[in-house]
Amino acid sequence: MSGMWKGELRKAVSEIQAEYDRQLEVVRLELEQKMVLQIQKMQAGVNRDNKEIKQLKDENTLIRSRLEMTLSKTGDLESELAKQKVNAQIEMEMKNQTEEDYNNEIRKLRDLVNDYEKRIETFVDELKVIQNAKLSLESEILMYRKLLECEEKKFASPRNLDETALAEIREIKRDPVQQKTEYDEIVGNVKMSKACRSTISISNASIDGAYVTIENTGAEKRNLKGWKIERENDRGRITSKYVFGDVTLEAGKDLTIFAAGDESEQYSDKDLAASFYTWGAGSGEYKLYGTESQEENDHDVMASLSMEFSLQKEQTASSRNINFERNLGIICT
């Protein structure tokens, strides 16, 4: 009995051992397969990692190369930037120097222009003086010619003058604004301004120094004994002076004093003649000295008439004339 159980036990143990071995082999095979799969996966991951590492190494190498190139270019750019900064500083200094030179040149040119303008003004003033002197000389020449004509008729009555000369004199006295004379190459403008503080005033004067006219704007006649007229040229020098004798100027009337040599050459009964040949031509100022009362001895300026003459160049087909445009600024009290 025991032997049978032992045989059965041995058989069972053998079967269990065989099943165990079979199961163990199955487990071993599964584990080996799993290990192989794991190893294959790990090997594939290693290969992939190696590829990525290689790729990263290549990229790292490329980046390093590019970085080295960039650093080299950065150095070159920094060097170029330093040079550009130096050049910019030099250019700025040159620009500032150029601007300073330009401003200095502008100041010099402005000073030069101002100097030339002053010179031109001086030349214009000198030219004006010369032109006035020329006008004065030519006016005096014309006056001397007329005086010579009068001298030729000295022993004849003034009323026996030829009609042409008398008409010319009357025309000059009546309208001194436009005077036609024998002055070739002379055309000019005359600006007159007068002031007065008495009923006796200077109403008119000839630009060529031929006459001066005074008038009585009051309601009563005035005796002019001791009164005088003086003419100053544009430089302030007195060129002529006339002192009235026992002369009475009626109310609302005028009186003309001609520079005609002597009293016999007056052109009407009421006109007077000075002892000098001309009052003076060109720009100047006439001053009338007198008193409001016969008892007063001090003579004050009772009236004045200033004349400013400027020349222009103008030529017509036939002849040239003096056109006097009179601009009167009148101040009377």
Write the SSE topology:
Blueprint: H1 2-152, H2 163-174, E1 178-179, E2 187-196, E3 200-205, E4 211-216, E5 222-223, E6 228-233, E7 238-243, E8 248-249, E9 254-258, E10 272-273, E11 284-290, E12 300-312, E13 322-323, E14 329-332
Parallel strand pairs: 2-14, 9-10
Antiparallel strand pairs: 1-13, 2-12, 3-4, 4-9, 5-8, 6-7, 6-11, 11-12
Key traits:
333 residues, LTD domain-containing protein, Lamin_tail_dom, Lamin_tail_dom_sf, rod-shaped, 14 strands, alpha+beta, Immunoglobulin-like, single chain, 2 domains, disordered C terminus, coiled coil, six-stranded mixed beta sheet, 22% strand, 49% helix
Q: Rg to the nearest angstrom?
A: 63 Å
By DSSP (H or I, 4+ residues per run), the number of helices equals 2
CATH topology of the largest domain: Immunoglobulin-like
Overall domain count: 2
The amount of helix comes to: 40-55%
Which superfamily, in CATH terms, is the homologous superfamily of the largest domain?
Lamin Tail domain
User: Pairing-aware structural class of the strands and helices?
Assistant: alpha+beta
Q: Taking all residues together, what is the mean pLDDT?
A: 77
SSE series: HHEEEEEEEEEEEEEE
Beta-strand percent range:
15-25%
Task: Name the strands of the widest sheet in spatial order.
Answer: 7-6-11-12-2-14
Largest sheet: 6 strands, mixed
User: Separation of termini?
Assistant: 185 Å
Instruction: Give the C-level CATH assignment of the largest domain.
Output: Mainly Beta
Low-pLDDT runs: 155-162, 172-186, 313-333
Q: How many distinct beta strands?
A: 14
Named CATH architecture of the largest domain: Sandwich
The gross shape turns out to be: rod-shaped
Keywords: Coiled coil
InterPro entries: Lamin_tail_dom, Lamin_tail_dom_sf
Coiled coil: 39-66, 92-133
Protein name: LTD domain-containing protein
